[in-house]
Queue: 3 jobs
Job 1
Amino acid sequence: MRSTDVVVLYGLLEDAGAHVWIMGGWGVDALLGRQSRTHHDLDLLVEVRNLERLRRCLIDLGFELRYVWSDEVRWVRDDAWTSPLEQPTAFVYGHRDGREVDIHVIRQTGDRAVEMLWDAPYAFTVDGLDATGRIAGHEVRCLSRETQQQAHAGYELPANHLQDLKLLDALP
């Protein structure tokens, strides 16, 4: 996915009220303030109350549900939604032009805690959601360096993820 695709999609999601945090490879690049490598997808984190808006926006843009991460997913419902149906919390939407968006869902609680609504070997904190970065000159919300590092745990890291960790380690 190109940086212009990321910036446009981020802006459209924001306009739809589906506020997200960028994580994964683009999240690392946002913290760096530059693109360090090519990315086949965009990894997003969304708060559960915004999940329905995010999915509707993606569908309106021509994206389709490609798959659900069956080894991680939970099915949830939120009172903020108009639909009574449960939604997955770890899934991928794809577009016929090849763009993919990998989405994971959290719930922020009143005590400033973060409940991760998928199965993962790590936990996020509210402080880890306070970071901002830049993609193609545009400010975006993203995960903090420490939270990005935590998210690279629990699986065998491919070479590009190992490189991401080195770049994160080099940040001031």
Job 2
Amino acid sequence: MHSLIIIVGVFCFNLYAQDTLSIPRMVDTSCMNCHADPSLFHAPMIAGQKKDFLEFELFNFKYYIRDHEIMSQIMEQFSDQEVKEMALYISNLSLCEAQAPVYENNGADAKKGEQIFSKTCFECHKKDTSGIGPVLHGQKTWYLENAIKSFQTTWYDPRPSRLNMRAYTDMLSKQDIKDVAAFLNEQKLCE
């Protein structure tokens, strides 16, 4: 029941914010309530990510290409131009703000995770926005584990980047996923 109240509250606030606040103010007071809160494990930290990546994901939610009940309902309320403005604004936030706390790794081996990441992931996922893919360093462990698992289990269209990722994620065991997530979570974005 508590989560339903939060969902309805965020949705209603989003509609209110859309009518009364500028995009930057709306992002700061609405989007970042979830996406900058380290205690909300399901919401990735997004400050400072690449504009193109943010646009891609936000449009996927807006047009139900990537199915996520909450994000799709929120994003469908915005025009294409507003989505682009959101992505631009979020990309200009400091990547340092996207640092999640280091979580207890529950049996994960971060050293093994570093080896796996170094062999298969580092080419696209840099510690800054110079890579092809999003920055994964300093991200929430739970979110990373579920994101990797979603690439393994999504054999249909709603995960558009599945085709790019399947050669790398399908070979990972559950333990490998935990190890990689632990390694990435421990990485500091800004010293």
Job 3
Amino acid sequence: MAAKDLQAAIREVPDFPKPGILFLDILPLLKDPALLKQLTQSLASYAQDIQSVVGIEARGFILGSAMAIELGKGFVPLRKKGKLPGAVHSQSYGLEYGTDEIEVQDGVLNPGERIMLVDDVLATGGTLIAGVKLLQKCGVVIESVVVALEIGFLNGRELFEKQFPDIPLHALIVK
């Protein structure tokens, strides 16, 4: 099974979540056990010397949890605003169709801890950039960032690499 099998399973949904947006749906990848295993192992292969996998809500939770199990590491979620109890660190960001905010519980990550950040899709870069900024507030070392799918024409990689030239960014599939 190759990356082309992963790419072939991605479903295109026009006009979602609003008119003019072409949503690339990775859920068919997640439903197929062989493709999910390949996806998880391929993403996990980018890990070097990490202590935890951090995933961005919501599909980053699915991929990140599976990767953490594959790697024998812990998993930490970056949640949308208002979903976590207690003190949190937060970071707002722009989407291709609005704005949002993500949070992580204070104290769940330790300064100097080496992590890998994972999300499902790199589009405009806003979510990943916010994730890195949020993690930097926690004082962790971001060893690398991985995504299953990169939407190349939205230029999120260029924006990410301009702000974080020293953080490796890996995408399995580029459309």
